[in-house]
Structure formats: structure tokens, C-alpha cells
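Table S2 (continued). Query chain:
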Amino acid sequence: MVSFAQSPCVPADREHDMAEIVLPVIREALDACGLTRDDIDFFASGSHDFYEGRTFSYIESLDAVGAWPPISESHVEMDAAWAFAEAWAWLQLGEGQTAMVYGIGRSSLAADLDQILPAQLDPYLLAPLRPHRDALAGLQARALIDAGLLTERQLAEIVSRYKDVAVDKLMDAPHVAAPLRAHDIAPPGDAAAVIVLAAGDTARRLTAHPAWVRGLDHRMETHYPGVRDLTCSPSTRRAGERAAELAGFATADVQVAELHTEYSYQEPLLVAELGLKNAEVNPSGGPLAGWPATATGLIRIGEAARRIMDGTTGRALAHATNGPALQHNLVCLLAAQPRDPGQPRDPGQPRDAAQPPEAAQPREPEQPREPEQPRDAGQPREPGQPCDAAQPRDAAQPRDTAQPPEAAQARDAAPARDAAPARDAGEAR
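Corresponding output:
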């Protein structure tokens, strides 16, 4: 990463369209690294038609990019952090040397978010129930409190750290989706963010202090929250573990972590799953200061990289999420230095584009790991301890409910019927 820019997150912007919101941010990001739009080899963006209320709404933003002469461009219908992942992979393939990623989030456009956000749920069983936008988050927060992993006062302490309001005063506020109060929920807003990526020597030429993407991974859980253990986030943990393998350092080694926390309860949950030890969490203020929908995750990556580019820290972590109750999670590890070319590389790890293939040494064959043992379903879990989702619990095994056990045995024991004799070709039917 060689530059990052974002617009202020405002409660509602009714004066500008998508192109007018993102154009000054694009100019700022390009000016910071001395490039023009003609110097960009690949463009990737993220937004969502449901917030805009029209199909193919992102086409409007291309007026700010310039679609003629023809450009190489891609779009994701989700948080622009996943557009960042696509652009990073595109550069790793050697398709070009520079890429621009931008996200436009306009959470305020929807007249009623309670009608918009349930559309991401299962269309047959959950969406018809029309849960309001914070209902599932309230259920997850309640599950954490019932498991003894959190208290409502701890949630107020988290908010107090960001908003400088007394904890007791926050505790007096009414519930919105118990145990969540209004201050536990990120306020919707409108903003845009832009990141410029460059590979190898191009990055070194454009800035003296690039933030190197050392590892990135994202994982998704089932879309049906009823079969998930809401007291943990195994997709976050696995994404963090894989990103650490690629990066060559652990998530616990970072000094700064920017987490996509749209609700206060998500911060301690993510800190536990990522194994963060002494990292400063959300020094930018995080999403609790403003939630510009599909630009929120990309801003987390940009804010983490900013701390590296200005010399504040040497290693940082960025997290983005998409879907209800932390369903889909992305983890990005950044550092002030690229990976040592002499360091053994994981077979699935992309090379630094500046290094020739010979620079990477073969890795020792990995020893098979012992299978993980599942946690006893009745055993309490310590606060801050990630759950073990490697093995399903016995209670989660499906059972044939169509027949009682005795009937099922009788059915299994029934002999197969003899095949019907072949009919003579001349026999009338």
C-alpha cells in the first residue's frame, strides 16, 4: 500500500452522487503517491445496490474513474475490503504493477434499514420473520453474556473509551435490542475510501514507507445463525491463522489492530479469536464513530496501513466483516518490511512481486498435526478463550426424525424386492 485517503463520515449526504463523493478522495490518494488515473493498471470497488435502491448503481462511480479508454475494472457487491483482496491477488499474479481500490458507503440512503438488512438472511425461514437490523446482533450479545464471557457493564466501558461518557450514564440508557443500547451500535453514515496498491520496486519508488501486505485471508460461516455457536467466531480465528502463516508472524505480534466492530460486544470477541495481546485496538475510533456501510472494512485496512506509513508502528492487523453476526470475516496483516526472500515460504503463499522465483527456498515438509479434540458441551469456556469449532458436537448430529428408531430398524432389515420379470416385446400393454 502506497497511499490511503477517505472522506469524513457524515450522517447523510444528499448533495452529491457516488461519483461526486469519491472523486476528491481519488484525487487525494493519487496525489499522495504522485500517480494519475492513467498510471493505474487495475480498478476494484465495493458497494451494494440494496443501500442505493437501484441495480448496477456502482456504474455511476466509474464517472470518477474514467472508463475511456477502456480500463481493467472489477466490482464486489459487498464491503470494499473484499475488493482489496481481489486487487492484491491480481497483483500477485503479475498482471500489473498498480491497483486502486475504492469503496463508497451510503448507509443513510435507505428509508428503513429494518427492511434492507433482513434481505441478506435465509429467504425461506428467516427473512419472512422480518427481524429488525439489530436483532441478530442482540441475540449474539445475549449469548455471550449468558455464557459468562461478557457483562453489560463491560460493553459500557468499551463505549466509554471511544465516546468519553461516564459508564454509569451509559448504563442508564434504555435497551434497543437487549442487551444492546443505542450507544452500542455504530451510527449509519456516508463516506468513501480509496487505497492505492503497488507491487515490489514500484511501491518503493512511489513512497519511502510503504505498508506491505504480508498476509490476507477470509473465511465464511453458514448463513443460518441457528446452527452456529454465536459465542465465538471460528471464521475470524481461521482467517487470522492463515494470514499469519502467509505473513511469517503471529496476530499476537501486531502493535495496532483496526477491527470492524459495528457493535460494542464484537470487540472483545474478536480480540479473543485473533489472540491479540498488547495491541492498541481501533485507535482511529473504529466503526462506533461512524458506519459508512460498504466502505467500513476498507477503512480499517487503510487506517492500519496509515500507522505503518507514518512510522507509528511496524506491524498492524486489519479486520473486516460482512453478513449478520460476524458471518464472513477477513484478516489482513501488514508490516513496514516485506517478507525476507530467504525465509521459507508456505506453498500457498504468493511471492513478493519484486523477488524472482529463485529467491524463495523450499520448505520442510509439514508434519501432520494431531486431530483436535472437541470441547465438552457442558464444560464452561473461560472469558477470552476462543471456542473449538474444529469438531461438531454430538448433539449437532442429524437424526432420522421421519420414523421412530424401531421403525427405522425394521425398514433397514426389510429384504429387497425381486426385480419385475422382463415383458415380452410382443405382449400388449
